[in-house]
Amino acid sequence: MRKRKPILTEQELEIMKIVWELERATVRDVYETILKQRRIAYTTVMTMMKILEGKGYLKKTQEDRAYLYRPAEPKQNVIRGMVAEFINRVFNGSAEPLLVHLVAEEGLTEKELAEIAKIARREK
Amino acid sequence: MRKRKPILTEQELEIMKIVWELERATVRDVYETILKQRRIAYTTVMTMMKILEGKGYLKKTQEDRAYLYRPAEPKQNVIRGMVAEFINRVFNGSAEPLLVHLVAEEGLTEKELAEIAKIARREK
DNA sequence: TTCCTCATACTAATTAGTTAGTACTAAAAG
DNA sequence: CTTTTAGTACTAACTAATTAGTATGAGGAA
Quick check: B39 CB within 7 A of strand C? Predict the structure, then answer.
């Protein structure tokens, strides 16, 4: 059985979210964005992005002086993987308990649920 | 703002699942259970369970020679916390996108969705 | 040209998570 | 009573994740 691609860690996800948002970004772009939230070193961001490239989540091209990074695959794919991984860990792989949990937790009405179903169908 | 209780790591969750299942368990009980799946040292399990006690997920009482551990709070509470934490990390705190994702991913029909809603209502 | 800025590569320190060894003690077995 | 067994406490090794420092080079500014 092939070992599956390592899933995103906390900090890696932080960076991926930014790159998904910007669609393409240099280390500096990401660095500046994170700086608004918290203190971090430029080289830290660089290291992380290189790791993400190694894991196959980002791809880079040379652009002027600096590398330009882009997501290697669409956000939806990655999110799908993370959700699946979470369901495996916490709910032993079956999605239904999570759904039940969420519906109960949110106290959704029939109407809201139908609305979600509609959006989901569109998403498909 | 009070710092929230540290969330369960991978291995900690593995142990908690066993204790929830058994309802109360000694280190040995958990050790034997894990052994069925993989090789592990007795003291490793002990260390982990002590950590879980420190984090407030387990509480122990002296029982004969060994400690008897029990869950400090019901499984549902902890699961709720983990789901919330996941939603924060991945979906910036809003549950709806996760719901939409799940419904779309599972390709649920009206009927199945209604069924889930029914179970959820009972759960409440 | 010379200097400053900003980029990368390489290296490494620190912290968190996981795993397990060793010393010691009390109870059970012989 | 002595030996074996099964438990805990304390310590530590190892791996993974996170963070950042230093060296170096290319390009633009003076």
Answer: yes
